[in-house]
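Office hours follow-up: a student asked to see two folded examples consecutively, so here they are.
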Amino acid sequence: MTPQEMDKRIVRYGELKPCKTAFIDAHTPGSDQKENFTIIGGGVSESPDQHVHIGIPHGFNIGAAGQPPKCRNSLHSHRTAEVFFVFSGRWRFFWGRWGTAGEVVLEEGDIFNIPTGIFRGFENIGTDYGMIMAILGGDDAGGGVIWAPQVIEDAKDHGLVLGANGKLYDSKKGQALPDGIDPMPILSEDELKQFPEPATADVVPNFVARYWDLVALADREPAKVIGETGKLRDKPGFEVDLITRGSASETMHSHDRPSVLMPVKGHWRVDWEGGSAVLAPGDTMSVPETIAHRALPSMTGEAALYHVVSTGDPAGLTWVPK
């Protein structure tokens, strides 16, 4: 593959195209300054304004959320896995029907395999604009987002209505639900009872991995972060490894499915049959299946990157209520 062809599979952090109207809470005070990014795959955006950087199916989606301080993402749920790692800033994640069942604060590089099937939200509690990168299970990301009832009600008060077809309609732009399209139904009390409310003590040990712990584990070989044998044992349809300077290998290798490289720290030179490229923190690179490649730090100093590859497993539930 030529460098020109591969360049189309690299999304530079500085070239990310945000969407400020991606979801139903885009006008709701406290959530109206969010920027959403769809990097790989179709994502779960409810807006036609969302730009997709790489539409090639990978078995999972890669996205990102950028938010200024005190901005939050409203309570929602997914039918498949949602994994975040903090690229910049300080973030509070919270979950439960009202967001009060539990919470955890994550710093740069920390990763959270949020249990599927629970309502979750997050907010930037740092002092500057922050970014979190997201991995969503499945090529269709589970068919969209399930919103807590109060989020839908609040959005209606600020001009946004979500149709049962999964699309947003903005009354501030003169839009209305088309004929034959009903509003997205609000979950009933019986349906809401099916959403677990795990305590923090149940979630953090099993679903959160701290960056510096992973760096220590990856001193000689890549640390399996998420996978059947990972620090966070799960089979969400993909595996995540952390690779550092000490565990980067000069040996060329390939996968039978596309893989994704996402630097957290340092600059990385990726070599493949046909060329090479240098990735900086925040960049995302999709390596085609069967292409032999390797990733090595290209400068001195701290160096770490997350590596994601599909396993072909069903992108199913990760949280099973006790």
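And the second, which I mentioned at the end of office hours:
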Amino acid sequence: MTDSTTQAALGRQLMARLDEAALHSLPGPGVTRLFCSDEHREVLELIADWMRQAGLTPELDASGNLVGRNARALAGENTLILGSHQDTVAEGGKYDGMLGVALPLQALQALKEDGVELPYGVEVVAFGDEEGTRFQSTLIGSRALAGTFDPASLEARDADGVSLGDALEAFGGKPRDIPQLARKPESVIGFVEVHIEQGPVLEQRDQAVGVVTSLTGIERHRVTVTGKAGHAGTTPMAGRRDALVGAAEMVVEADRLLNATPDFVGVVGKLEVRPNAVNVIPAEVTFTLELRSPDADVRETGSREVLDACRRLAQARGLELEIESTYQADAVACAEWLIEALEGACQACHEPAERLFSGAGHDGLAMHAMTDIGMLFVRCKDGLSHHPDEAITAEDAERATRVLMRFLSDLEAA
């Protein structure tokens, strides 16, 4: 294993790689890199180079994932899958997703340079679309690998009217071949993802890493409120069918219910007003509603209460309401044997690593349908994520890389 000087260098090199990846972004604050965009294409060239340095052979698959395989994986031996997503939210940070691509490649390269040959196949996947920022349809790549890809998602369209299928075809993917990407469960050892915590727990504990026990359940809805446009100066206030006022009441009521329910969180993250004119009563408002809970019963009950409240408020104001469910993923548990293996690697590296729950969704939500999943969290400053100020330290990057190296070295072929 590498000495402490080399390990510190690994952290610095990892941070430099993450800085370089962040350059592939749309202009503006933070990092904005969307699925099947020019920035996506550019960053894959960089990641492919990292894969080759780690001894992996890179390949763009039919769903837009970049997959790097070692010789044993290429030969069809049982394989451990590692990875995370390359895409970001609008004006996001450098580390959400990309850390889980760069760090395992850094760890594999260090093991290779140390002369360590792993006795099993390894794949590192840079998933194309986890955030759903462009097409509002998440986990495309991980669902493809898990064998749960829904071809109907190819019809989703971005703000410019481009379909996901057409964008993927232009990117070099092969939408028709996506079903063939499904892995055989018996040939997969498991799936492990490294990710920033996106929360404050590790910082509060003063710990660099943590071992995840489970991933939250998530559902998303697109809510359209329809009223009637009119002249803002000549239409009496009484009797107006103002879609924005109705939508505002719904947002406030959703917030009240979320605050009143333990282990239930959510957000109205996107809102569109039509005709969006300064002197016209809004005729239509569309907003997104995302709801999360680690407890399926809490999420289902809370969702029903929120959506029923929207219906009551719409009826009270004479507004029409359409609710479209756009995404759902149930909470999933990490495999106990992977939790224990990651804990063992932490202990061997003298890293305290208590267990914690993930309040965010990850590619593991999809991969769980096909194989056991495990997850290692890395401390992030102020628990901040989905923001340009998202930050980790070089020291924590090094410590997490060292833990993953130990995990990979200790893992036996299944």
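Two things to take away from it. Residues 186 and 373 are 14 Å apart (CA to CA). Confidence is low (pLDDT under 50) at residues 1-6.
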